[in-house]
Amino acid sequence: MTFQTLFAASANHIYIGNTIWYMIVFAILLLLVKHYAWGPVSDMMEKRRQKVINDLDSAADNRKKAEVLANEREAALKNSKQEAMQILSSAKTDAQKTSSQIVAEANDDAAAIHAKAQTDAAQAKAAALDEARAEVADISVTIAEKVIARNLSADDQKDLVDQFIKGLNK
């Protein structure tokens, strides 16, 4: 018998012993696959499922936190804009007050300088008149001495000068 004839003969006849043997081997293989391969693969798939669920939950939490932070930043930006406006307004008000104060002080200083100048001018005028009186008195005494050819006493000179000045004022 050749190999082909044996194969063909066995294909036509199914042996129950071989079938039982194949089923036992298949069951043993199933148990081995379940114990050594199916369990670890199932555990790995469960861990992967849990990781995906945790990652999705974490992403949702992070998105919510990002929204909260964005809202807080927006509120802080609005507050900083309001504070900046208040600071600018306060600075403008302070600048106007300072400007008004500087102008008022300058006006006061100018008025004081003007008053002092008037006082100084009046004093200078009085000093000039006194000096002019003294010079006029000296000149008039000199002229009178020459005219009278004699010396006058100090009281006489003073009386003459006073009479001369009264004549100038009129």
UniProtKB/TrEMBL annotation:
Superkingdom per UniProt: Bacteria
Pfam families listed in its UniProt record: ATP-synt_B (PF00430)
Q: Where in the cell is it found?
A: Cell membrane; Endomembrane system
What exactly does this protein do? Answer: F(1)F(0) ATP synthase produces ATP from ADP in the presence of a proton or sodium gradient. F-type ATPases consist of two structural domains, F(1) containing the extramembraneous catalytic core and F(0) containing the membrane proton channel, linked together by a central stalk and a peripheral stalk. During catalysis, ATP synthesis in the catalytic domain of F(1) is coupled via a rotary mechanism of the central stalk subunits to proton translocation. Component of the F(0) channel, it forms part of the peripheral stalk, linking F(1) to F(0).
Which family is it part of? Belongs to the ATPase B chain family.
Q: Which PANTHER family match?
A: ATP SYNTHASE SUBUNIT B, ATP SYNTHASE SUBUNIT B', CHLOROPLASTIC
Question: What protein is this chain from?
Answer: ATP synthase subunit b
Taxonomic lineage from the root: Bacteria, Bacillati, Bacillota, Bacilli, Lactobacillales
